User: Fold D-alanine--D-alanine ligase from Egicoccus halophilus.
Amino acid sequence: MKRVLLLFGGRSSEHEVSCLSARSVLAAVDRERYEIVPVGITRDGRWTLTDGVVQPAAGRALPEVADAGPTVALVGGADGARLVEVDERDDTARVLGRIDVAFPVLHGPWGEDGTVQGLLATVGVPYVGADVTASSIGVDKGAMKAAFAARGLPQGPYVSVHRRRWSADPQLVAASLEDQLAYPWFVKPARQGSSIGIGRVADRDGLAAAFEEAYRYDDVAIVEQGFAAPRELEVGVLGNEELAVTAPGEIRPSHEFYDFEAKYLDESELVVPAEVPADVAERIDHLAREAYRAIGCAGMARVDFFLTDAGELLVNEINTIPGFTPNSMFPRLWDAQDLAYPQLVDRLLDLALERG
Assistant:
């Protein structure tokens, strides 16, 4: 039986979303094939062994990693990696056993950006999802968009703005943006997901507040041109060399746009499969494969698109560790392809072990 290190929580602002994803994976994994070792990463970065029960604390809407468990660490050994429990009182350690494969469900910085992937690779543990390079490109919207542009993929207009540039001359930045982009704009932290830190800007008066919010999470903000009532379409991708792509699904947000609350707290409508013409679905399939290969992805990804009212199909972004919550599009897309959640987890672990 393979021992699976399930990593969740983490230092990013997507900590709670990661916990929700972990709870779903724990409920779905085949316990006859895999022994799960659930390790939570606290908000300050401590690895702690958990009991696998992921529930919100009293008075909280979303779960988080409790700080009460023993500290653990992953170390490389002569015949494979081991998880060890560290007694911080006397700096001793006790081996808890080998780790055969890791399943990180860490969203955002310090988890989805190649940092954890590098650690796992260093100690020789196969892991679910993209490698260090693809992870770091995928989480950085500026780098991701540059990779898409190099591949010739269609995208909406955007501009990257560093905090220093905005602070030095806000009026000049605003004027420059107005020369390049039509309102409305969406201002986003470059390396952040789950729609955290995003602001919609209808005119120059709203720009300062939007940048202030985005810069809470990153020193670089991406300003994207919005579109009039675009359809938001998504597909799931699985595979290393040979790829499988789902039929597209559609998000119909419960808010003005698909923000954090619309994703995780309120009921947005997810239409699976989306009602799109056959030629649009075929084009989405092709572009999803190209986006996946543009960043060198492996294992899995979710690729997001806009379909404008003029019929233009644009690649929005790629997510190398998509959400695994009950409301997440990625598992629902695969379920519609007759790959239920337990089988999806099996397939991801098989792909990780295949890549080695």
Notes: Residues 2-127 form a domain with the Rossmann fold fold (CATH 3.40.50.20).
